[in-house]
Amino acid sequence: MADRTRARIARIASHLAGAHSNRVHENGVEREDCRAKGGAGGFKVAVLGASGGIGQPLSLLMKMNPLVSVLHLYDVVNTPGVTADVSHMDTSTVVRGFLGKEQLEDALVGMDLVIIPAGIPRKPGMTRDDLFKINAGIVRTLCEGVAKCCPNALLNIISNPVNSTVPIAAEVLKKAGVYNPKRLLGVTTLDVVRANTFVAEVVGVDPKDIDVPVVGGHAGITILPLLSQVNPRFSFTNEEIEYLTNRIQNGGTEVVEAKAGTGSATLSMAFAAAKFADACLRGLRGDAGVEYCAFVASEVTELPFFASKVRLGRAGVEEAFPLGPLNSYERSGLEKLKKELQASIDKGFAFARQ
């Protein structure tokens, strides 16, 4: 009985910390690899920044995803508690926690999908440029780990400013000789989620029945909803177009101000990131017709990175769709965003090349 109890404790302990760690608990039981019993095969996913405002609800949502067989949660603080909490959910996904820079590589080995929400949140009065000073370094360090430990994984970048952090990730992967532009994706799904919600409010339908393409980037005027291409088609007045475009572009600020210094868009971002991660996993599984907007290396415009609708598959981004016909308002918005987006991309390149 004692041996069975010790073995059970060892299995539980392996959920709560890196399976590759050989540190010993107070009860003398070493952590050992743990495998899901009876669970269906799936993908291995890592969330880097799992203890943060986005990371915690995102970790919960990924634990609920039946396509995830192993979920690695990494952060520099509080990961054991988050891992213990999430691991109690009665789904078949095996959860393992990793704490601190010394366990980053263990968290990444063998992953199919790596999601990076790590970084500080935006606060009232703070621009995305302010975020850059801190989050750029965090993203660079984490991507160095990805390049070393799981260079073939799909990489979803959430850390803001996405317009700059995705180019940083690209440069890090290039330096390591493992850059594959099809497998690096900036997550702009929250812009689409907001667009679907706000348009549905105006036209009076269920948001799940709306699909609004949102192109460009992931900050302010670089966010361009293509309201002329809403599916199903609706007609909007000039006032409605102006209202919807402005609200979609400033959705993040709306949440920051509403939270009055207590945080930024964490819950809606986690929801959007989980939707996009699920799409990536369905693509990896080989599902047909998986199409989402994402900020990727692109030839859709003259800019080196651009958010547009892409088709996801086993290779990652298998096709980037052209913008299609734009009305005069959208053409004007596209020209306005290019200069600002290019400057953000260049800022990311310059930081990574220092």
TrEMBL record:
Gene3D superfamilies given in the database record: Lactate dehydrogenase/glycoside hydrolase, family 4, C-terminal, NAD(P)-binding Rossmann-like Domain
GO molecular function: L-malate dehydrogenase (NAD+) activity
Family: Belongs to the LDH/MDH superfamily. MDH type 1 family.
Organism: Sequoia sempervirens
Catalytic activity, as annotated: (S)-malate + NAD(+) = oxaloacetate + NADH + H(+)
Catalytic residues (UniProt): H218
Keywords, sorted A to Z: Glyoxylate bypass, NAD, Oxidoreductase, Peroxisome, Tricarboxylic acid cycle
First-level EC class: oxidoreductase
Subunit description: Homodimer.
Documented EC number(s): 1.1.1.37
Name of this chain's protein: Malate dehydrogenase
Annotated positions binding substrate: R122, R128, N160, R194
Pfam family, one: Ldh_1_N
